[in-house]
Amino acid sequence: MIGRRITYRTVDGVRIPGTWRPAFIHNGRYFLTELFIYADGLIDCWGLVTVEEFEEKVRTGRVATTLPDGAQAAVHGVARWKFSEPQSRLTPELLVAEVRDTIDRLNDRPDSTGRCLAAVDAFLADRTEENRAAARTAFLAVPASKRRYALGDMDAKDGPLRILVAGPGGRTYRPTEPPVSQEAYDRALTYFEERARLREEHTALVSADGPPAPYAPAVRLGHAYQNEPVADPGHLGLRNDYPAPITVGGVVHPSVAHAYWALSVTQPEVRSAITAADTASAARKLAAGTDRREGWEHVRAAVMTGLLRAKYDQHPELAEILLATDDATLAYDDMDSAFWGDNAGRGRNWTGRLLELVRSELHMRRNGIPGL
Length: 372
Fold this sequence. Notes:
- By secondary structure, the chain is an alpha+beta fold.
- The protein contains twelve helices and twelve strands.
- Strands 1, 2, 3, 4, 5, 6, 7 and 8 form an eight-stranded mixed sheet that branches. The protein has a two-stranded parallel ribbon with strand order 9-12.
- Helix 5 packs across helix 6 (182-204) and helix 7 packs antiparallel against helix 8 (268-276).
- The two termini are 43 Å apart.
């Protein structure tokens, strides 16, 4: 259900991940809309509700799984129509089960399919009838619409699984299938033994390019307003407004922020005033009162990259602080810019991203890899 449908809502500055799926809301007529499902267990179906409240809305038909022939339907601002011989694959129980599974997956917890496969592994490790019964119960708890995808095998689908949990002489959940023969059961066992071998081989593989995500905890670079350098600045030294003078084009700027704002304007007298400003905040205010260079938004990321390289080349002690962050995500606060700052997940965090780039370049040099 999740696939590429990724969204979120913000609560107290924290992003709550979510996804969505189509559904009909019954409110006079049947409105085709989206159910938004979030990792904290809330569902937006024309208002945020808990899973239990959602279940009640489904049970009472407010969230509809049955579509009456001739009923009025609509998509807001798009179209209206009447149902003619409608067919729905959903039942109230199936919809609720799918939503519960979605919440589990959003939290990286085993959903009903994951719990089923864990029960199957337990049975294969100890093939008692009690464990088989537990595996069968777990399999039948998977929403019927999802069972065929449980093994992730679009050729075999759920065939080996439903045969395994039924056992020799048992019946699968499909009423038209005959009792399971010993031969079919043996084939299912062979399938799972081969599946286990392939899984073991896959687990032993090591990514050729390293881990896909940082292993170090994220570092937040919050506002500090430091106007004088200190002996051991820590992460404060990674701020662009930290007083670490850099020389760019023969001009000494008191900080990266001073240099950035000076380069953003064309008038030489304003540029000199920005460079001479007592604080980075004063430099920003001077620049804000002057027109930016034409096309500044297209070059600003490249300019900032160059300034950050200059800062950490000219201040090796600050480069050590940056390197000490390992591969952590750097979340940079900038109350004046949703472009440069992360700002509790509401900004684009370009300063943090570029700091991570410069950090990688410093690691490259330290490891003797020639520059490109």
